[in-house]
Amino acid sequence: MKTAHCLPLLLCLCIGDALAGTPIQLQHAASANARISISNIAGSVNVTAWDRNEVQVGGELGDGAKPLQITGDDDQLSIKVEPRSGSGSGWFNFGGDSRMAPTTLELHVPRAASLTVKVISAPLTIDGLAGGDITVNTISGNARIHANTPALDIDSVSGGIELSGQVDKASLQTVSGEILAPALGRTAKLETISGRIQAGGGPWQALTLSTVSGDVQLSGKLAAGGSIDVDSMSGDVQLRLPADTSAKLHASSFSGDLRSDFGKPIEAERGPGSSLDTSIGAGDGKIHLETFSGDLRVKKQE
Q1: Which of 90, 129, 240, 272 has the most CB within a 10 Å radius?
Q2: CB of 82 within 8 A of CB of 65?
Q3: Mean of the per-residue pLDDT values of the chain
């Protein structure tokens, strides 16, 4: 009788073991500046840099996924989570992928490696890379990047972007996810539909920013002869500039409120709207700010 009572519990334990993920333990030699491609559909991806010429992959492979492999040679490696069903090879093959449980990838890569990462609903963390470029495509997973890289390109739909470290050239795009980037380098392009943008850094040689309804807080220094170009539909924009900025400033809003610590805005003679054209310092650079219905503030940093 006691055995009979234990059978349901034993059955549950066996089913739980069968559905549990498979531990991942993989390693592959890699050159110091190897190009590494990583893709995962659901779960998470965590990448940590280390001072070894080797790629190591740990974590847990979700039920329904093919056995994981590191393919390629020492200069170019690929780690790709794929469904065991093999019903399609496309990255957006949701039908076949829906039967695959989440996979957790814990990777160590050479510090100077370059990364290309594709995820769908898997949050991404990259920490400690220095020297290689980084490209990220994500659908709904947040991306947190701490790296010193010459070039960073992130394209996200609903996932947020959080950036720290130093990026010389950045291209950050979201639809509804917010962008937090306090240390942008010389060149930056930021685009969002409804996500909030909070960014800083510089000195900027060229910074362009566009938003539809997302609010913007921007603070940084302009390089000699550099340019800042901000365009907003209904999102509010606030730009903070150092007192020693040297640039020609044009700011305008069709129906939003325009205020500036540099010069006095002029109200439109007919209809709504206001604009400001002035020189700050020697006027070496160029700052162009426009909103349609969003409020616009240009402030002097204390």
Answers
A1: 129
A2: yes
A3: 90
284, 224 contact by CB (below 8 A): yes
Max CA distance (Å), the chain:
94
* Cα distances (angstroms) measured from residue 282 to each of 192, 252, 265: 32, 21, 20
Non-local (6+) Cβ contacts of 24 within 8 A are 57, 58, 59, 60, 61, 68, 105, 106
Q: Please tell me the distance from the alpha carbon of residue 195 to that of residue 216, in angstroms, as a whole number.
A: 9
Tell me how crowded residue 235 is: count the other CB atoms within 10 A of its CB.
26
Closest CA to 281 of 240, 233, 248, 237: 248
Write down the residue that tokens 């957790």 correspond to: 104
User: What are the two backbone dihedrals, phi and then psi, of residue 15, each rounded to the nearest 5 degrees?
Assistant: -65, -40
Q: What is the mean pLDDT of each run of 10 residues along the chain (302 residues)?
A: 45 42 95 98 97 98 96 98 68 53 97 97 96 96 95 95 94 95 95 95 96 96 97 96 96 95 86 90 97 96 82
For residues 274 and 266, the answer to whether their CB atoms sit within 8 Å is: yes
CA distance 19 to 118: 25
